[in-house]
């Protein structure tokens, strides 16, 4: 066991949790390893003779390993490298020898803690559940200093700079947490710098003195989206989790993260900041090592030849039916359980099995004509335990009445869900270690066939499909026809396709929203109310489902979000657009009178490029200018939150940052936000913005209800 791995003074320090804290084991003999296969004119002996003299080489030997799942074991050169940092340096040197592809390298780009666990055979799953402490410092304090206040486990501490650090260090030492949660990684170097500045002796946040910087900040582009990775730091003996840079922790909880630690072999600190694809790759690497397969550094998989017809048919996603715009009553939702992962498992879709040479004359994939070998594939073996375990977790969750156990199960279920969600798309990712585009195409082809088969089955049994998205179908009774019970229809479809179709919920009503620019239905915008028997909760927000509309969008201010949800409840009760507009007027009147706390009007947007790269004066530009003025760094890929103060102004006065504590707002701007949110609610009934405005013009400017609402 080793829940945390540190590299200190050239040695590896492995931390294991005990009942009363943690123990450290120092390993001074560890050397990282990479592998080389030769595909040019040279032999392994030639390469070994040349690399043995390199200053970064510790030792070499020839071993039998598989260089891919399609290859049997063959001789490769193992190189033990003198230092951790030397692995990539030596790999780049070897990769530059000869012609491209002459020397293929493996096990190169592993992260530092993950690498040690793999090569030393260490399981990073903690022996007990780690304890956590939360530490946050206001961004303005971090920017300007010195820090005179901070929040520790929900308690606000205020004091002089030196006394505050002494109190913090003492508290951390006494509670001795295993995990330190920080609101931003910059808290760590800033506190240590302040300790040095104010001569605070023995200031310590880790289980040993000092801290390390592991990586600087960076900006990247991924599938057209700009992202930002903040600088990363390390405290000896404690896992650091930066809340601003942890998708998995924020989407699950400690239990969910620990579940993935045990599956992927990535220690908690690394796992918390990893992407879904990186965690999935970790799980795949565990299976690859069990099969004696090396992990390629750079992908050299070529895409097999396709006919023009195959190219056309393959370049499609999952099937989506055009939603029938409007408000529909008595609607039922059914979902295929983990459709894409189950397609992979049940159809044996795997990089080394698809388009196999042994069944080249067969057409196993609908539309595309690809063959799939029957021999068990690598990818299904990776995903099958995840699918089965999540089914078991969900089954237990339905039965448990213990809140703590339920929270643990939800965390684990959500963690596995995100891995399963990504497994399909990752097959089409160019840099995926074990991906292959033909797998991606085949999964989509199977999914399209399954959804079309399901639609035909529903129609045969008297049900009309009002919408369908990849793995979900909404049906309502067809007029003038008798209906087969949906449980029976679901069982028939499940047996036919080999994947369970689950009854998700019955809706009293559901509304599919049209596009703003036409009458065609927006594919992913809908809202509705589940029938009371379909929910464990009484009628309330839990009974309503919202997808794609403003209240589900990250940038929507909380005031507009709450107003839209309230308008939907009014629509549910009245089914009258005019009544909904009366309630909209209530919110507008409150907004006009300045009765809304500006903090409830904050808009959060992602910065897409540096300030100087913007050609138009957008709200983001105004916000970035104010951030620069306050000394708050905002890089492309990071978010910025502001309140619109005067939208007609083309200067930094257009907005106020949340950190500035704004006291005013632009009424007309936020009024339009409310009308836009109301249009999403009423457009399924044919009411667009112009008709809503006409209804508002017939309403008194100040209503009795608006005063009563405060």
TrEMBL record:
SMART domains xrefs: POLBc (SM00486)
Transmembrane portions of the chain: none
User: InterPro entries, from UniProt?
Assistant: DNA-dir_DNA_pol_B, DNA-dir_DNA_pol_B_multi_dom, DNA/RNA_pol_sf, DNA_pol_B_thumb, DNA_pol_palm_dom_sf, DNA_pol_type-B, RNaseH-like_sf
Q: Which domain of life is it from?
A: Archaea
Q: What positions does the domain DNA-directed DNA polymerase family B multifunctional occupy?
A: 285-682
Q: Which GO terms describe its molecular function?
A: DNA binding; DNA-directed DNA polymerase activity
Q: Which reaction does it catalyse?
A: DNA(n) + a 2'-deoxyribonucleoside 5'-triphosphate = DNA(n+1) + diphosphate
Q: What is this protein called?
A: DNA-directed DNA polymerase
Q: What is the lineage of its organism?
A: Archaea, Methanobacteriati, Methanobacteriota, Stenosarchaea group, Halobacteria
